[in-house]
Amino acid sequence: MTSVFDAATAVTPRGEHRYTAELSDGWLIGGGLNGGYLLATVARAVREALPGKPDPLAISAHYLSASRPGAAEVDVRVLRDGGTVATAAADLRQGDVGRISALATYGDLSRLSTGADDLHATAAPPDLPAPEDCVSNAVSVPVGLEAASLLERFDMRFHPDDIGWASGRPNGSGLMRAWFRLEDDRDPDPLSLLLVLDALPPVTFTFGAMGWAPTIELTAHVRAVPAPGWLRVTHASRTMAGGLFEEDCEVFDSTGRLVAQSRQLARMPRPV
Amino acid sequence: MTSVFDAATAVTPRGEHRYTAELSDGWLIGGGLNGGYLLATVARAVREALPGKPDPLAISAHYLSASRPGAAEVDVRVLRDGGTVATAAADLRQGDVGRISALATYGDLSRLSTGADDLHATAAPPDLPAPEDCVSNAVSVPVGLEAASLLERFDMRFHPDDIGWASGRPNGSGLMRAWFRLEDDRDPDPLSLLLVLDALPPVTFTFGAMGWAPTIELTAHVRAVPAPGWLRVTHASRTMAGGLFEEDCEVFDSTGRLVAQSRQLARMPRPV
């Protein structure tokens, strides 16, 4: 049985390196479709265009305009393919309107991430109470986002210390920590990790700045094939200036290994 | 008088959104020209193509092959231009060989970075002794890189605790901190910050992994127009796995403000 995520990010080939997708209204948030959902859709098209290199090692997306549910087209141009990695450019459009332009370098994590030549890994998962002792996103919906279909896609369990914003008491920490899994318990893989990297609410919520924070640019690195089970996710920001903020996301798998990281530059939230 | 940096990154228009550059042999390191130098050259061409939006807010570069001194061409395609930001794609080639493909979103930092709507900034400059009490790059050249012309471009003063690698005693910290300025005291600006983000030695040196670390992808965010004077720069990495590592760089200006940050995914160093 196909998971909701896999069905929603499916792409259909239409000629060489050209794909169509049907963007689902199940991933609406704020002013459009979730950026991570769109990134995963683009990444699936790039994977189709790069046989033998299934995994996004690094993908950089610049968001041009808000995507809407419905038909979309992804054009992929292979820029380099040789050795252990390949690089491609991908553009997602709806009609004549560009939504996302991305550059992506792919490889095979099953061959790269042996850990054999690991030199160092100080990255550690966030300290989180057990999922049953955390706060579910089902009961932590900020005012104005009750109707966001995106919230039904995930099972998120927030650290109780990080969720004051949901009840009008933001803690000002600039840090958000949560357990994460997909609604139908689909286990994570390198493609779904791209979704996870933009799934939590904007870290600006912890400063009481609620509402949708449009992404300008997001670059994701997938560092290893994730183990099955719950993921642990952190969002953090250290500088909000000039109406922009950076959001660093880290995703750790059930073994505690850092499997994906991202940084995005986004606009401070607009009132919902 | 034109600074060495400005002369070396100059671009000449050759038709609409097409530019030529003469890549200087003064920026050689390891297997090719320094990635930050190349990024700044690409960024200068993008600036030429986006009038009224002089500053790279976010630029994502995927490195396709090592660049050589000599003629290069930069083609820029404007993907979106309207409102306060514009996004373009840029490709740097030498002959028929692609060297770098980039996506860049530009704006006007002098209008954005008023600080008026700053909500939060916990990012703080590294703790460094005075420049005269730090270790100059003139006396901290790792074996095999003595001939790197790049080292003549910068005045870097490393934290004494972070420089053991230069004498065969790497401290294993995964952290490198230094003062930075250009050789001819050219004051920093948003364009030169792109160079600074890839100027220090790879943080892998602190683990005794010496040699050139080829960049796969580097994304830079310029967060503010830097004040004149010395910059403070940190390089850090928390996960080295599968032959790859991430390197986070932060640049603080003389007022202690975070003015630029980057993350790159690079290959573990090859023996020099």
From TrEMBL, chains A, B:
Gene3D superfamilies: Acyl-CoA thioesterase, double hotdog domain
Pfam families: 4HBT_3, 4HBT_3C
SUPFAM superfamilies: Thioesterase/thiol ester dehydrase-isomerase (SSF54637)
Domain (Acyl-CoA thioesterase-like N-terminal HotDog) ranges: 24-107
Domain annotation Acyl-CoA thioesterase-like C-terminal: ranges: 131-267
UniProt xrefs under InterPro entries: ACOT8-like_C (IPR049450), Acyl-CoA_hotdog (IPR042171), HotDog_dom_sf (IPR029069), Sec_Metab_Biosynth-Assoc (IPR052389), TesB_ACOT8-like_N (IPR049449)
Domain of life according to the entry: Bacteria
PANTHER family per record: CHROMOSOME 23, WHOLE GENOME SHOTGUN SEQUENCE, THIOESTERASE DOMAIN-CONTAINING PROTEIN
Protein name (record): Acyl-CoA thioesterase
Record organism: Nocardioides plantarum
